[in-house]
Amino acid sequence: MNKYMRKDLQFYKPYHSPIKPYEIKADANESPYPHHEAFVEHMKGWMEDKDNITRYPDTDAILLRQRIAKHYETYKVNEENVICGVGSDQIIDIIIKVFVEPGETILAPTPSFSMYKLGGLLNHAYVHEYALDDEFHYDIPALLDLIEFEAPKLIFLCTPNNPTGGLLDRASIIQVLDKAKCPVVVDEVYAEFSGETMLDLFEKYPNMIILRSFSKAYGLAGLRTGYAIANKEMIDTLYIGKPPYNLSNYSQEASIFVLDHHQFYMNQVQEIKKEREIMKRHLETLSFVEKVYESETNFLLIKVERTGIQKLLEEKLILIRDYPPTGNLAGCIRITIGTAQENQKILEKLREV
Predict the structure, then answer these.
(1) By residue range, what is the domain housing residue 142?
(2) 110/177 same-domain check
(3) Residue 281: is it exposed, middle or buried by C-beta count within 10 angstroms (0-12/13-18/19+)?
């Protein structure tokens, strides 16, 4: 089949996430909590109208965009400032398709979300991955120099960063926005956990695109709803690359529901943050743990002094994330924060290790 393929993809391995049996799933930064008690009944009632399933969805997701705008009315967000997609992944793909010509440069942090690089590769871009420092902080002077040297067509910033958990400070983001002569994507998918956002500046910086998601704090990872907020001209431009009918009726309705019950989900976020700090303190007492990195997310990145931990936990039906033995995440594992009971069981099994 290689003879038919693009030459630049012939040795590339596709992304797979194998389904494994588990009792505790702490490998994908999902919510461990059940939904609001009214969620199931609401969605069942909504499905009784057959047209909600048999008809194509609203291609512009107008009701959802209006609800997102209302949620962010403090920041003067309007429907025209929002575009919705199948997870933030699709929004990333749309952004690259619209702004980056084949061979042009994208700047993306490493280690960070893998879809920046994958999206660039599949769209024929050159992805220059700029490294975070040894503590996984952004080296802003080096990044500003790189912007000057590379003259990129697109820049990605991830804050809080996945998989490291750290936050990029506001002043540094503004420095990048002031320096860049291209769109700058500020990935805020974990912002509900950090409480930090650049939304108040989306009109001041017309080249800024802010990414958000319902997958993490709102527990809708299985429905894949992401969105971006930017000024109207930017959103209108992104619509050029958006596929029709991309977001299902079910995903749109469920996303509206969780925003209508926002405080319920933010209470869960507070529990996760509390559990995260408890988990961090206990992990730091384990003999094989070298370092637990500071996190403003729903997960912890841990540097360990032995291999095979992920496999040992998997045998006990606990799923966590590990990383290759070489590269900037060598020797690290990542654990999603679960319920208090789940976290306690993970710690018990780690102590057995």
Answers:
(1) 56-260
(2) yes
(3) exposed
